[in-house]
Write a structure and sequence with these properties.
With 192 residues, the chain is of the alpha+beta class. The chain is built from four helices and 15 strands.
Length: 192
Amino acid sequence: MQTKPDYYYIPTAIDRDVVEVIQKQCDKLQLIKSVTLDKELNSSEYELLKYRNSKNSWIHTDNWISGMMKHFVEVANNNVYNYDINQWADKIQYTVYDEKNSHYGWHTDSSKSSFHENYVRKLSISLLLSDSDDYEGGQLQIMLPSNTKMVSFKPPIGTAIIFPSTYRHRVRPVKSGKRVSLVGWYGGPDFR
């Protein structure tokens, strides 16, 4: 019996020219200091920076960029996961790691949807807008369900990685350069 992969890796063929078009749109967005879910907001600013240090902005789900990302999520879902999903659970996050040691500690993306009261995030997507040569460090790491194996990614520009939102993952500290990605969460009714 063939086992299903724990993550879905898509070399999308999005090249630097397409990324520049995306970047032009995202450059119009105002970046804010990234925060975490409410349970962490009671921490001091120092503790938050130890846990997450990045900047981000938000792209509406009716934007063409989210439509492109939706396609990648649907391909992964059709080929591997077969989850009951049907819409974005939240806006798309444009995330920038451009300071030394900017990072995001271990976390999961599983939470309720901000768009639909009875929906949860089921699949997460990370679409890299930086090439692996643009920054040092900054690997996306995913802890697989057994908690005994971790996979690490520093893929080329335009690569999409899709994985269940319940998986623990992190972005390692960026030592130099700039790491930029688009992150989204596709959802549906609660798991049964």
